[in-house]
Design a protein that fits this description.
By secondary structure, this protein is an alpha/beta fold. It has 46 helices and 19 strands. The strands form five sheets. The protein has an eleven-stranded mixed β-sheet with strand order 11-14-12-13-10-3-4-9-8-7-15, with helices on both faces. The protein has a two-stranded antiparallel sheet with strand order 1-2. It is a multi-pass membrane protein.
Length: 1286
Amino acid sequence: MKITNTWLRFLETDCSHHGLLTSCHALISSGSSQENARRLSVMRRTSTTTAGIYLSLMLIQCFPDTINLIRSSLEMYKGRCGRLIRSVVILESLRAIGLAVLSFHVFPQLDLARCLVLSACFPLVAVLQRSLIAMMSAARNGRSFKNRLGRCFIAIPHVLMFLILMSSCYVWTLFDGKFTATIALPIGVICTSIGFWESWIDTTHAGTTYDELYRLKYAVRKMNNTTNAVVSLMRISCTVSVMVAAVFMNGHTKLNASHFIKAFFSFHTKQHYTRLLLLSCSIIALHSFMRVISRFLAALDLHPFSFIHPLSIAPLIAYGYVRYVCQSPTCFIARRLSRYGLRWVCDQWFQENQTMTSPDFYICIIWLLVGCYRGWRLVRQRYFDTTEEIISSMPPVCNGLCIEQSLVIFQHSLNRQEKTMLIEDEDPSDENDELRIRNDEVDRVSTVYGCATMWHETETEMRQVLRSILKLDVDHATRMNNKKVNELRYRLEGHIFFDDAWEDVVEDGVEKRQPNEYFHMFFDLLNEMTGEKLNEEGKMETRILVNTPYGGRLVVKLPSGTLLFVHLKDKKMIRHKKRWSQVMYMYYLLGHRIMDCPLSIEDRQQMADNTFILAIDGDSKFEPDALLRLLHLMNAKSDIGCACGRIHPIGNGIMVWYQKFEYAIAHWFQKAAEHVFGCVLCAPGCFSLFRASALMDDNIMHKYTKTASEPRHYVQYDQGEDRWLSTLLLKQGYRIEYAAASDAETYAPEGFEEFFNQRRRWTPSSIANTVDLLMDYKRASANNDAISYAYIAYQFLVIFFSMLGPAIIFTMLVFAQVAAFGLNSSDVMWYNAIPIGLFILLCFTTESNVQLIYAKYMSIAYAFVMLAVLVATSSQIVLETVLAPTSMFIVTMVGIFFFAACLHPKEFTNIIHGIVFFLMIPSTYVFLTLYSLINLNVITWGTREAVAKATGQKTKATPMQQAIDMVVGVVKRGLRWISCRENRENEEKRRRMEKKVEKMEFALRNIENGVDVKKILDEDDEKREQKTEETQTTSTETETPEVSDDRKSQKTLQKANRYVWMTSHNLKNCERGKLKGAERQFWQELIDAYLTPIKTTPAEMKEVADGLASLRNQIAFTILLVNSLLAMAIILLQKHKNVLSIKYSPYEGFKHTKMNETTGQFEETDEPLKIDPLGMGIVVFLLVILFVQTLGMLLHRLNTMIGAFQEVKNLAEYGVTMETNTQADDERIMTNARLMINSTVVVEGHAADGYTRHRADEADTGNVLYKLQKARLAKRMQRSALSNNN
């Protein structure tokens, strides 16, 4: 057998699906065989083509490192550095050197078959390590001769395998002296084998010198940016250095820098070097795709059989194919690669007599078998118990020249105690023993506080949220009591904050505060849905009424044991509205419950990280699975500060249909793109899960209590509190993610006016918070890893084009009507400008009800205009064909929407509501946008009349109404004076007041003494007066002056009124309690610090109103001016299209239909399309945004599918097992113990002293578990002692 006289050159490619290292090689010369030269016509290779081969190989190897270097450098520029891991740098540099030496110098002297068998020898160091371990195990002291002899026999196969693989470093030097890579061959093999550290690092290296490598391999820790950057830089430097040295070692002395520059920058598809670079780019894309697929399969927990992994089976299959199928020099692969200037030789060492085998045939087969075996050992599946916490990982560095090494998935259990390197345990404990030490289950169980904010919801809305809470109560109890292994469990506590729940009621001339009709409706509905009944004493034990510094509280024990706290807020005692309710539960549940508990700082931090707040609205509807998906997402990623779900609007009417499609495309595209490319900008308050430790950040919770001091603060803080809280989280560095599988429903506005007023609040707040984030982009990007400059640019484009929406829609309406009706463009422009201009004038000068009436009628009119737009658009597509830019944009947008609906099969029917969305485009993108911006100074949730009332200004009545009121007032005063009724009424009112004061004083004393108030208030007047005289004999001796008596009576009356609300008709059967002193003090301090009702003078409110009006004028004028200029520019460009246009022809010979202005007939023409540059630029930018959002949607749907597969897998793993397990007995005992403890807590929690927090429950449960484990361990030790004695 002889080697060809000329050098061989190869180019790596992926002929097989697995991307093997040396699957394709090319030749520089034709070889020694004239027959081969005759059968394969070869052109003379130029120096530029040779340079292209070198560049292609270098590009394949260095491109992943270059990307990694750029990414790491950017992160380091932001200050995210780390400690350099030198061992990784050294090993990866050796791997880069070894692969480069083999690729650029050794492989060119071999054919494809020998390259394949040589690549199977890379596990050389792994085999050596296994041999050393076996021999050192046999040499350990204390072993018997028989034991040592047996272990020596076990070590022999490993030693033989090492010697066989080591022969690859010199075997071809022995067979043929013309093989010149005598030194390069062992250097390349040994360096690559050492650098392939994933093959010889395993779990036994934990805690040893190689502990850092162990942690990196199994993803116990991530490679920091500093190490990443240095590794990438060293690998690139080593590869380039070896390539330069190989150019001279291979005899290509004529190559210089100009050849490499020309090959890289000169693009000619007919040239070989350009085709080579394109081929290398395809290989890079294939490698990236294969790595992504491997990650995807690992995420799905779908692992292919070990024996079909590329690392274990691909070399053997490729060698068999080359050896026995592709022996001809003119095979189809050679013919294909000849187009790239490459000459292919699969097996160059074949002889004239095909019956004879080559001298290295058998040793090559052994190499292949050993390499496949070691590859199988590396990628083989490991089986774990469902109780174990498994982490999957991939090699941290991607190797382009040896991609199969980068496709391995490593799995590791965090629960297993692995043996240390070279140390064996003589008496290992059973890993499945139920008594082995486990993590405290208290640390595994999350705490979820469900916090709902209510105001004046209807009975249907209240029923919906109560039904969701009751389902959550059942799921929580089931999970806590079943105690399935490794099942997600959580502690649950419900809180409902009832805003403006009190009203003034006048009885017998006395004014008192009582819960309003909405709370009574809620209480009756709660009793109905829980099925609560009275006990023998006529009381409801699961209902407790408590007076609080902010109003009152109702504590309810739900059927499955969850405590529900209903906080009744009195706006006279505490600030009302949703934001202040959120401040209440943040400081109460996170500040008071966590920070004031007697735990160490570390324990409180752990509790905060494992505590979550589920924020919902008073009309939210969701299933327990929706919460579990959010909780699983939060547990899986510690950097997430909030996770939100998919919100579905419900209700009836056309406006709800519109919102169904609007919500669908907003979640499908916008939220998905934000999740994938950065962070979600808004976590809706109707269904979001917040991490306690994120909210407790001082820059979040404290800033959220900030009151508005500037005009823009009123828009940003109070109009969209959910959006502002999300902005604070993002700026502080916390991620907000979107879980599409977590569904929730909420009632949407059904009326036109209600919808416009809702969006009048949302739109300015959304713009203000987005602009605030963009203006502070440096801080946001520095703190938040997910917010990049590219994401900031994307959000800038979105907000910029949303502000140009009115102009874009206006010009679309104008030209659509021109095309549909054949009218003059100038006339149509005025026909549309006049009604829109009139609406702008109304927004500046009239009340909101007038604006809304006008907008409603104009929306109906423009719905008919949109039909003309539809006809005109269809006509344009037919005339100008689909290849016209505008037609292409419309067709693409419709196709993408339909494709998105197909990707969301459960929501596919929302695409039908797109018809309503299309008809309402002028209403929402023109009139609604203008209404929101011009009414930016309206800071209440109602109409402008409410603003006048809030600022101390009376709403002006009409002159006729003023005259009627004046006449009626004069007549009333005259009649009262004539009849002397006024004096009698005042005297009667004074007597009733005194009588009421006496009654309230008596009731207050009896309440303090524990006597039932209702019975006392129902007694006969004479008995009550007699008892009052007896109890007040001592107080009559020291009477104060009349003024002091009045003040004292007033205070006593107010104090007594605090208990009277508990005696109303539907609350009288509840138990009564009082707050503990610490909690009462907490609420008083919190109210004094942040929640005292804001009292401002009319002058101050007028100043605020003037500031808001000034802000409105600035913003509205700017946006109106920009939109007017844009609309005018587009219209003028269209009028002068013949001069100021871009001539566009999709392809040569393109024809379209055009109206002949002379004949008025449509004729086919080959004239290029005329496109105005401004409109074309807008279309291009909108398409870019749409494609970015579509890509984000695809990636997010892929992520959702992964989660669905994992959920199905978990359901299968948590199936019922028939195996006997002694721990099941313990779990049953634990369940009974918990029930006993829970019953004790319930009794204490519904006593007069208030409720008991969950921490006591955890401590008691831990003690029970400790006693059970101690008893089981004692029994086991006793059995072990008896067996030893026997």
